[in-house]
Specification:
Distance between the termini: 22 Å
Shape: globular
Organism: Acinetobacter gandensis
Strand order of the largest sheet: 3-2-4-1-5-6
Site (Interaction with substrate tRNA): 103, 126
CATH architecture of the largest domain: 3-Layer(aba) Sandwich
Structural class: alpha/beta
Radius of gyration: 20 Å
Largest sheet: 6 strands, parallel
CATH class of the largest domain: Alpha Beta
InterPro entries: Dimethylallyltransferase, IPT, P-loop_NTPase
Number of strands: 6
Keywords: ATP-binding, Magnesium, Nucleotide-binding, Transferase, tRNA processing
Oligomer: single chain
Strand content: 5-15%
Subunit structure: Monomer.
Number of domains: 3
CATH superfamily of the largest domain: P-loop containing nucleotide triphosphate hydrolases
């Protein structure tokens, strides 16, 4: 372990206080910040992603924010590649990286590695699978997966849409089950890092209150106008990964497919709130899964984490 340099992973569900904690730590030590958020990579998506403001980013610079347009795709493999380059550069300059965010798939990929030589995401294939799900129902998509990859069918549930899409995508691109390829192919593990894993896991009811308040503020400061601007600037499709971000899909559907009445807007805002709570639920589940195989320190509140981490890194 002596030759392994430290990497601090600061995880938690949306609205748990991760970013404020990371910025507080940044002020106290020789750190640099790397965003671990699949929505913050997109330019022009600021309000709905709770992106730090320009002033905040000047004071607390984050890497991997605003790096691609909403029309592009950014995968877990892209993240691992970019993050490792940044981490190595920080270590070379005597800095300690703090990775902060809520995209647990990215953390899992960094902690455990990715199977090599799996095909990259193919937008057209994914759109075809999603269209089948919309037209024939996800039971039919799940049945197709079970027929070509029974082992994946055992591992996944019908509700695991993104995992089902990825498994079918790999099969359509390679002709082989993803479970077979994963079992056969080596992992790319970043063994040279010593990960320090911390997680903010606030009480669910308290978190739901924070989420509701955050969304209320987002609507008030112009989230809907932001989405209107995106529609004007880009040739958006609801199946783009950027538009699958919570809030954006609901707003895009409202603006394109409703009568824009106040009643429909309230329905849309309720759907966005529900989707954000579901995101937080998935993030809790991911974190518990990661805790089964990795050492973690968890905190109920950001204040607890601040006091503890000040002693460790202050």
């Amino acid at each position: 372990m002596s030759n392994q340099l430290p990497v601090i992973n600061l995880m938690g569900p949306t609205a748990s206080g991760k970013t404020a904690l990371a910025c507080e730590l940044f002020e106290r030590g020789n750190f640099e910040l790397i965003s671990v958020d699949s929505a913050l990579v997109y330019q022009d998506m600021d309000i709905g992603t709770a992106k730090p403001t320009k002033a905040e980013l000047e004071q607390y610079p984050h890497h991997l924010i605003d790096i691609i347009s909403p029309l592009e795709v950014y995968s877990a493999a892209n993240f691992v590649e970019d993050a490792c380059v940044l981490i190595d550069d920080m270590h070379a300059r005597g800095k300690t990286p703090i990775l902060v965010g809520g995209t647990m798939l990215y953390y899992k990929a960094l902690l455990e590695g990715l199977s090599s030589n799996l095909p990259s995401a193919d937008y057209a294939v994914r759109a075809e699978i999603e269209e089948k799900g919309e037209c024939e129902g996800w039971d039919a998509v799940y049945a197709e997966l079970c027929s070509v990859d029974p082992l994946a069918g055992e591992k996944f549930k019908v509700s695991d849409k993104q995992r089902i899409i990825r498994a079918l995508e790999v099969y359509k691109l390679t002709g082989q089950p993803i479970t077979k390829l994963q079992a056969e192919q080596p992992k790319n593990l970043p063994y040279r890092y010593n990960f320090h894993n911390y997680a903010l896991l606030p009480d669910r009811l308290e978190l739901h209150g924070r989420i509701a308040q955050r969304l209320k503020i987002m609507w008030e400061i112009g989230f809907l106008n932001e989405v209107k601007g995106l529609i004007e600037k880009y040739d958006l499709d609801e199946n783009l990964p950027a538009m699958r971000s919570v809030g954006y899909r609901q707003a895009l559907d409202f603006l394109r497919n409703s009568d824009l009445s106040s009643e429909k807007q309230r329905e849309m805002e309720d759907k966005a709130l529900f989707a954000t709570r579901q995101l937080a639920k998935r993030q809790y589940t991911w974190l518990r899964s990661l805790q089964e195989t990795h050492k973690f320190t968890t905190y109920l509140t950001a204040k607890q984490a601040q006091e503890d981490l000040r002693n460790c890194y202050g």
